[in-house]
Amino acid sequence: MLVAWTAMALISCSNDDDSTNKQNPAPQNKARYSVLVYGNAGGKMDDIIEDVWEKCLPLMKDGSVRVAFFYKYGKEFAEEKDENGNTVKERIFSGKYAQPGDVVFFELTKDTDLKQIAKDAVKNEDFELYDPESLAYAINTVKEDMPAENYVLLLYGHGGGFDENIDYPKDWRKKETPQSRRGILYDEWIPTIAGQEAMDVYEFCEGIESSEIPHFKAIFFHNCLMGNMEILDEIYDTADYLITTMHALASDGSYIVEMIQGLYDNADFEKATKQMFERVKPGLPRTYTLKDGTKLNGDLNLIKTSEFDKLNPVFAKLCKRLIELYPTQKEALDKAAAKTYRATLTYPFYDALDYANKVAEATNDAQLKDIAAELKTALNAVLIERMGVHQNEEAPMKEYTLSVVITDKTNFAAKTAWDYTISKAYEFTDFSMITGWCEWLKTNTHNPTGNPAGQAL
Fold first, then answer.
1. Higher local confidence (pLDDT), 347 or 263
2. Do β-strands 403-405 and 383-389 pair in parallel, antiparallel, or remain unpaired?
3. How far apart are CA 369 and CA 117, in angstroms?
4. Is the pLDDT of residue 189 over 90?
5. Which residues pair with 34 in a beta bridge?
């Protein structure tokens, strides 16, 4: 365990001594990189993070790269209703080093005995990973016990991109309604009326900004759908680099292992990420192929945040022009939206550049053509390294960018599970406030469903 773990009142007061600190070295000279892996995946995925620990052990040969894991193990059983309405339990827990609901926090070194993890774990399935104080605590502990020249935060678990049932300041919710939080990192242990509890984008930023590392070298979102403009506009100034996907992320843990190897091999973060991309890319077709043979698309992008400000002015122009053209070009714009590439069937996340190109082509509008070209230039400056797998023949796409929400005005005005409207939640996003994108969604009357989707999830 890291030094401060046993004193953490947020977790437990049952362990008052410091005997759990024996496996970890005392603070020493600064590492080149210290990495914090923080999250919960659960389901049938606990074994993936354990496999990462096993594969990383032989990498930890010196102190130039140090890695800590703050992980909450998942549930033992999944419960579903059968066709008769009866509750059916299926045992899904796949962990071997700890038990369901255990929370572990340790630095992985070359001397770590993984069999000791269960002994040092804190049993607390109700622990609030999504609380900003929890994230700040983990960050501060790494800062104190693993001092480094650069820090990397890796979110491991399930993400949902912009989620109208989640991305809304909780102080605005109805007082009599149980609070829900937002879709950066879901926690299967804690249900709400709108699904699983989760860390929202605002809590995520609060946790970082209130910590002793208010700005990271990089944040790696090892979770789904985070390459979403509505999310990225909130968080891009918390790190020099972001690693995200606009799709659902398929991973066997090799991204994390190769990221750590890349940091050992390269002092420069861009070179480390490029090496990681190169090493995992050959295995992507297998990773993105389901057991039934269904082939999916996927991507991972390295975002240079110093260039991110170039995107918003272009989206503002695109929004303004779409609203101007809609009264006379409705049919063309609707058809273009229906043909635009979508990341998944489940969420209204559309590839931003593909959308700009499609509407420009459909309308033959000179301004839209200029805007699409400007957006391409801006995205090329932001997405400095890209990795993709292109194998869904029904949804061909040569190169992925970032996603943006597109929906019709009727759906946009619908109520969420919390009795406020989708529109009200969306209007609060920085992306909407800066670009005016909500005004386009209030204008658009066509719901572009049924278009090519990279993943049928």
1. 263
2. unpaired
3. 57
4. no
5. 66, 151
What CA dihedral angle connects 112, 113, 117 and 119, to 10 degrees?
-130
What is the tens place of the pLDDT at every residue in 336-386? 999 999 999 888 999 999 999 999 999 999 999 999 999 999 999 999 999
Burial of 292 by CB count in 10 Å (0-12 exposed, 13-18 middle, 19+ buried)?
exposed
242 close to 232: Cβ distance less than 8 angstroms: yes
Among 6-20, 25-39, 49-63, where is mean pLDDT lowest?
Answer: 6-20
Backbone angles phi, psi at 14, to 5 degrees: -90, -5
184 touches 200 (CB < 8 A)? yes
DSSP 299: E
- Mean pLDDT for 67-94 is 86
pLDDT digits (tens, 9 = 90+) for 391-418: 998 898 999 999 999 999 999 999 887 7
Whether the CB-CB separation of 287 and 279 falls below 8 Å is answered with no
Residue for token pair 């063309």? 332
Sign of CA dihedral 93, 97, 101, 107: negative
pLDDT attached to residue 387: 96
From 79-93, 175-189, 443-457, the region with the lowest mean pLDDT: 175-189
Between CA 432 and CA 101 the distance in angstroms is: 38
- The DSSP bridge pattern shows strands 216-222 and 349-351 to be unpaired
Indicate if the pLDDT at residue 24 is higher than 60. Answer: no
Nearest to 216 by CA among 269, 267, 152, 302: 152
Q: How far apart are CA 271 and CA 284, in angstroms?
A: 20
Inter-residue contact 141 to 122 (CB < 8 Å): no
Helix (H) or strand (E) holding 323: helix 311-339
User: Distance between CA atoms of 355 and 375, rounded to whole angstroms?
Assistant: 11
Q: How many CA atoms lie within 13 A of 128 on its CB side?
A: 17
DSSP string, 105-172: EEEE-TT--GGGHHHH-EE-TT--TTSHHHHHHHHHHHHHHS-EEEEEEEEEE---SS-TTTSS-GGG
pTM metric for this prediction: 0.91
Q: What per-residue confidence (pLDDT) applies to 193?
A: 54
At 369, list the tokens.
């053509």
